[in-house]
Amino acid sequence: MQTDYDILIIGGGMVGASLAVALRPLPLRIGLIEAVEFESNAQPSYDDRTIALSFGSKRIFDTLGVWERLESGGATPIHKIHISDRGHFGFARLDRADAGVEALGWVVENRALGQALKHALAETANLTVFCPASMEDVEFGADAATVSVRRGEHIDRLSARLVVAADGGRSLVREQAGIDAHRTEYRQTALVTNVTTEQPHANVAYERFTESGPLAFLPMSAGRCAVVWSLPPDQVESLLALDDAAFLARLQERFGLRLGRFLKVGRRAAYPLAHTQVSETVRPRLALIGNAAHTVHPVAGQGFNLGLRDVAALAEILGDAQRDARDLGELALLQQYADWRRRDVSVISTFTNSLVRVFSNDFAPLGIARNLGLVAVDLLPPAKRALLRLSMGLAGRLPRLARGLLL
Ligand SMILES: Cc1cc2nc3c(=O)[nH]c(=O)nc-3n(C[C@H](O)[C@H](O)[C@H](O)COP(=O)(O)OP(=O)(O)OC[C@H]3O[C@@H](n4cnc5c(N)ncnc54)[C@H](O)[C@@H]3O)c2cc1C
To answer: What is the CA radius of gyration of the chain?
Structure first.
């Protein structure tokens, strides 16, 4: 059966758009359907946030030819990470020198990532971007999947060998396929903003665990730090209601004077946080990637990095299958992707959930144990190496793109 496309990607957020870019060297007909224009203020993926890209993710973007634009768009290297437990003795330091690399990661503004990906998509000859256009309905048949796409008043029905769901944590594709998603609220909301600090950040990222939730300061361009402050939802509401001066005073009280006084604050936004685990990531003619396949707490800055490794693994499997003239929607093929990604997703989910649970607990013996844990990471080279590999996105089996190799 002849189909309109080989692959239809639903969702052109940072993960879906990255997949479209990764697939561009392959002689495939690809369609990308995105509901909200990339530059729109309503864009849920390319918004005011920043992303801490791991060393491994930087390598993937380098291989895809996207990195140069991100670098000139203000990507800021992280040279050191300082992890501490507010009011307790323990802390751990990770340094690029420990890993022998130029940076442990980079902080990139989501909007800059959107622009870099949009530019790369525009250079892709075998790709059709439908935007703004919403997937309304999907049916999976024996030889093809059929997707109904709304553009204004107009509805198209498009067929493909494979549908990739990259439509985020509340994935409609996943729901229509009848795949169960178990969502557990963390009962924390992330308050996201940026601050200009009196003293330069010197490319240090701070992760400070406090009794109400983790507070991260990430080095950013123009003397700013990106702030991700996870708190109980009612506290976030009252912080959002404060004027800038009162908000900065509260933030300063939590973070301390390590970066001097806070001079200026950017726009504030709130994101309720949940962990999502899905029962399956593939079905015949369907693969789930990014937040459609898993959501994790932003405490360790791993969600997108995990999604980008989904992209690199799926692209590699599809590239090999295309060369072998296999059906790209065949379950046995997609199962290779599911098997490959299972362990990484499980390790990162367990790691982030443990951080949130252990560090949000006031139980005194647990407080001592976690501080001893931080000291151990600081002093014991094997513990430090393991944490470095995990946070740099270099643990487990790496896809070709993460090793600097083409598909
Ligand atoms: C506060 C916060 C901080 C974070 N910090 C980090 C970090 O430092 N490092 C990190 O790695 N990760 C971080 N993350 C996680 C990261 O934001 C997500 O992992 C990432 O956004 C997932 O991208 P995605 O493309 O899978 O999904 P999304 O970003 O949700 O994008 C989904 C896209 O699909 C589109 N869409 C949805 N439904 C349809 C439809 N029916 N038809 C067409 N299009 C549709 C949407 O418009 C959207 O563009 C953070 C998350 C939060 C909340």
So the answer is: 21
